[in-house]
Amino acid sequence: MADQFLEEAWKANPVKATSLGIHKYDSELGDFNEEAVYDRLGSLKGYGRRLKTQIEQADLAADEIIDYRLLKNGIDEEILNLEVIRDWERNPGFYLAKLHRATS
Fold first, then answer.
1. Which pLDDT tens digit goes with each residue over 69-90?
2. Integer Rg of the chain from CA
3. What angle is formed at CA 98 by the lines to CA 68 and CA 26, rounded to 5 degrees?
4. Which residues contact 32 (CB under 8 A, 6 or more apart)?
5. Boundaries of every domain in the chain
6. Is the distance from CB of 38 to CB of 82 less than 8 angstroms?
7. What gap in Å lies between CA 66 and CA 38, rounded to an integer?
8. CA atoms of 57 and 65, how far apart (whole Å)
9. pTM of the shown model
10. Helix/strand/coil percentages in the chain, nearest 5
11. Which residues of 51-71 are buried (b: 16+ CB within 10 A; e: fewer)?
């Protein structure tokens, strides 16, 4: 699940992927139109549900619990940014920052 989540995350935010050393999406900036954002939100919420229903934390080793929490927090953070903060909709500087990071 984590590998699939990361691949989708890098595809959804290729500038961030590049900054992390993932060069598969170097030629892309990401799609932040309303439809793409809502598609991403649906995917994130699906991952959150799967995480809660398919993985029993009590069965995890200590290092797996850390991975679980990192994945859960990453999902929750992205949902917060897209659904509540909504920089993609409210802040024109959001797009300028993406362009700046893509060319730095």
1. 999 999 999 999 999 999 999 9
2. 15
3. 75
4. 88, 94, 95
5. 2-103
6. no
7. 28
8. 7
9. 0.85
10. 75, 0, 25
11. beeeeeeeeeeeeeeeeeeeb
